[in-house]
């Protein structure tokens, strides 16, 4: 019994359109892969020391990094997931766009600059700064890897969905092959190109994604004579849900529980960004904190523009494609954006097939780039936090550290390929929101306490990281995302006693509470001298690397 | 292209001693920097999180109000959503202006004094 059975119909439809132009699709994919591999090899040759590998030599300009941050952030969740969520649930899907954007203010105001000033390569550098190194680095590394794997899961789900749409591959073996190909590419990008290669890949991808989205947005608006009210009206009518489609509540308004789920999701989105390790390490690629601030500003501009365009993507899909076709193609709407490209170009025309191929190639590029960024974050943290500082107690050479990072890349690649097969039918934006919830529960409280609370102790840091992490992941495990729901990873069993799909509303306050409790209950005194050092460095940039 | 930013210094700056850090942390000048950072960033963070939560809560519990049509098919919910975009852009701009005017000069002064004292 395969969970992809119901997607066969519409996938066939699109695949038939695509099949005549399959050489084109494969060419576009191949061009992107070859171009990025060339960049990777070039960057690999310039990667000489650890600062190159982990932080791209800290030589990128604020604009370049802003573009790369946007590339790292606008994942398959944003492109495929949000468009799909809006196409099916209308206004409720738009919450993702808003939450994902507003969240950047937390990063801008509280985290980006202090982190750039006081850290070196990883999130763990800042968390462990004034604490006992080994336990806190172990915790930071663990949570970095867990968050990144959740995020990877979503990207792999997106890759599987795309491929079945485009190439008509619906067999499990075929999908696993594609997911494996993505995995191998990401291992190559990261282990050879390091941060330098990955940053360039992100920039290329961001330009492609913005370009593709602009094109589709323009074509959608053109169809409605640039009258947004018309677009919304047609979407509402075509969705069969009328005015309710444009109002909040279609997905989350049914019961008190689903309303709580909406709040939970909303909190996770807004507090998650500033705790995402693959985003945080991007701030190390610029020369100083001022450049980090500027790169966040660029990112806010680019990402904001992109999320505004998700309105056209999502409501455009709802207006121009029947609900039946969207849902049959993928129960969570993950294929709405590529389907929109096909429809806007004309279902039976070459132009439609070309647009479909282009948008799918863009989505594929998006997935590859984000996967590379996530892998880099987790393998860096493994090598720098866990291997160099915990296992080797700070006595590893740079060469050994980089070697460990490369091996970690292979390991994480294999794990995410294995997990990727499990999550095909879940909305990829929903999956990413879980990574946000874990990041907001385990990482954000610890980062904020470390930077701004004088009394914070090692025990407090450990309690907030592990407390937030265990509760967030535990609640997900017993939620309808994993079991007891037709779209769950394991639809045939039911151990979902926690009713919410997103754990944020419980796990985030719990992370903050544990950090406070661990601190007030700890017997050790906080290290005042180390806090003085961290505080002065984080605000002034004194001695920044 | 990758080189249009000033190259970071590869050699390590002299890192001041723990005593110097503690001394600076206690100084009035640093206290002033900390105050102008925190008194700006903290309340503003609370404000935009509250503003965002207001939007989430209204979406949940004030469906009728959010569904009010303003012009054509554009309703209050839609305008509220767009307003979140606008405030995000404005706050980012406002903070950056504050940082450039009030924080950077103070931070620069302390940093160059501490690093230059070799």
How is this structure best described in words?
The complex is a heterodimer of chains A (545) and B (118). Chain A contains 22 helices and no strands. Chain A has 545 residues and is an all-alpha fold. Chain A has a single domain, classed as Sodium/glucose cotransporter (Up-down Bundle), CATH 1.20.1730. Residues 1-11 of chain A have low confidence and may be disordered. Chain B is built from four helices and two strands. A two-stranded antiparallel sheet of chain B has the order 1-2. In chain B, α2 runs antiparallel to α4 (76-116). Chain B is elongated and about 65 Å long. The two termini of chain B are 34 Å apart. At the A-B interface, α6, α7, α11, α12 and α14 of A face α1, α2, β2 and α4 of B. Chain A: Its main location: membrane. Chain A: This is Cation acetate symporter. Chain A: One of its GO terms (biological process) is plasma membrane acetate transport.
Mean pLDDT of chain B, as a whole number? 88
List SSEs of chain A in N-to-C order: HHHHHHHHHHHHHHHHHHHHHH
Structural shape of chain A: globular
Strands of the widest sheet of chain B, in order across it, are 1-2
Strands of chain A, total number: 0
Helix content of chain A: over 70%
Strand content bin of chain B: under 5%
CATH fold description of chain A: Sodium/glucose cotransporter
Largest interface: A-B, 75 and 67 residues
The run of helices and strands of chain B is: HHHEEH
**N-C termini distance of chain A:** 54 Å
CATH architecture field of chain A: Up-down Bundle
Structural topology:
The complex is a heterodimer of chains A (about 550) and B (about 120).
Chain A: H1 8-20, H2 22-46, H3 50-55, H4 62-73, H5 76-89, H6 94-102, H7 104-118, H8 123-127, H9 133-167, H10 172-223, H11 228-239, H12 256-272, H13 277-280, H14 289-320, H15 323-329, H16 336-345, H17 350-391, H18 398-420, H19 428-452, H20 458-477, H21 504-520, H22 528-540
Helix pairs in contact in A: 1-9, 1-15, 2-10, 2-17, 4-10, 4-14, 5-9, 5-14, 5-19, 6-12, 6-14, 7-14, 7-22, 9-10, 9-17, 9-18, 9-19, 9-20, 10-14, 10-17, 10-18, 11-14, 12-19, 12-21, 14-16, 16-17, 17-18, 19-20, 19-21, 20-21
Chain B: H1 18-26, H2 28-61, H3 63-66, E1 69-71, E2 74-75, H4 76-116
Antiparallel strand pairs in B: 1-2
Helix pairs in contact in B: 2-4
